[in-house]
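Researcher: First entry.
Model:
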Amino acid sequence: MEIEELSDELIQYGFNQQMQDFYLLPKKEMYHCFFRRGSFFEYKNTNLSYEKNELTTATALQLINRFKYLGQMDVSEKRKAQLGAISYLLPQGEKRLRLSTVGDYLQQESLVIRFLHQFGQSPEFYHLPEQIEVLQNNSKKRGLYLFCGPVGSGKTTLMYKLARELKGQVITIEDPVEIEEPDFLQLQVNEKIQQNYDELIKLSLRHHPDVLIIGEIRDPKTIQGAIRAALTGHCVYATLHASSLESAEARVIELGGEKALLKECLRGIIYQELLPTTNGDLGVLMAYRFYQEELRFTWEEGLEKSEERNQAVSQTTN
């Protein structure tokens, strides 16, 4: 099978089955490959051209080089971690992918492909659907809103969903751009030309956006830029890696956000995870806190309420 055909097959399967990631990892003389969906790993052989979830090193390297080339990554660099994003053309249309490669101490490369399922193009399920309306009603004011949760829990997708429903100009700053949205002004970090998060935040403020989306807060300059944007009267959405709703604010301070300034501009924190539903699919469950409204919904409350609904559904179907 040609490499192009194999890559098409893998990407098509990933989107059809609502997978989150595809992994290609070196393992002795072979490469190990598998899909991930939430916290579950799937080893799929049916209709694919490899057995025992293994590829020869030659085939795996061809596959890695193909995606690196498509993602405008440095094909010759096999040691440093590289990131990329592409719109992959399939018969059903373009599909958005995020790419990540890195080499180990033996300079053996690995590849992870993130499948970016867009709202409106993939099934949406919420354990507590009323939570979306709460977010829509309480995330419109000027100030800083933090979106937290594990990798792959849909933070960026949720920010885009909320921003689409607001009137005005939306500017996004990401590394890389994950979801293509023609109605937004999308900026991408490029360290080679000194376009980092901090510089792009300063640039975006000159355009006076109604909503500014920051792909990830990960260093002092980015959090300080996000706070500065919120204090100057902008509605700012940003993702943050935090393990819970309660730890998010402490995480911001740890990264360099001043507590006094944060108190002036922080409007809300949303924490989310993907959890299995009664039929085996994955659905979003959220906890949140909105400061001005003194509105709070804890993770424990969400789990309890979701379990009650699942039991009610099970009793009805039985």
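Researcher: Second entry.
Model:
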Amino acid sequence: MKKVLYVVVGIAVIGLIAFILTNNKKKNENETEQISKTNSTVAVRIDTVKTEVPNLDYIANGTFAPSQELSFPSENSGRVIRVLVDEGDVVRKGQVLAVIKGDQLNIELSNAQAAYQNAQSDSQRYENAFKTGGVTKQQVDQAKLALVNAKARVDQAKINYGDASIKASINGIVNKRNIEPGSVVAPGTVLFDLVDVSTLKLKVNVDEQHVAGLKTGTAIKVKASVYPDKEFNGKVTFVAPKADGSLNFPVEIEVANNPNSEIKAGMYGTANFTAGAAQKVAVKTIPRVAFVGGVANNQVFVVKDGAVTLVKIVSGRIFGEEVEVLDGLNEGDIVVTSGQINLTNGSKVTPIK
């Protein structure tokens, strides 16, 4: 009797398990079907084609360079006997910076002057002798040529003797002094580095889109990174006629108002290029991220009636994260900005925020 009872209970348990499994299977199939229906569309982010006036203002960073910079060399050899300036001193053009011992140069000048006086006497003597027929015309000409050469040697000796006093050839500041009294120098030895920062040049690179509106003399507002609250006046003095390897054009901006040499050569600066009123025209734009495979491909997905169409367009200028649309889209069209990798032409989509 107990065996029969155990058999009946076992059959009942097996039947209950089978019933539960069957119900679970049906429930899973229903859920799968619902998920399948839900996932038949692709979730994407969208944006609208709009007409707006783009921001054409442009900022370019660069470094300030001195208007004049000179590594001042020696023109003669000798021993430095005096140095009259130090690093940081302001000097004027023609000011004596150092003196090189000129004893040898003085001797050379004296010898050249003596030779010149002797040549003068010879020339005069030959002139007188020629009048009485004592010498030939050729001898007179040779004496005159010797006089000219002697005069040239005197002039050269005077220049060399004058070069013993090293004089500044530009206005500026002594940035570096390479000699001390007692130093022995040779021709070409760099004695001082002079820089003129009363006027500075900010050197920046400008892309082709913005360089078209620049010309020499254009007024530009300039800032130095160390003085963020100060604004300096500048003007364009040079626009390169040829782009560099990165397709940018070197531009130089002269900054004249540098009181007390506040801006130092080598500091970072920023030039603010402002678009003129004629350039501020409303254009159609879309986000840069809307393009499939990059702006150069000129393809975007357009959403209409819950599905997408891959459209070929003509793009124009790039304004930061916005791109000008010249043809292929109308204002108000909806374009996909995220999720394009999961789309094909005709895919159903669900816009998300």
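Model: Note on the second entry: The chain has three domains: 42-54+281-351, 58-65+196-279, 72-190.
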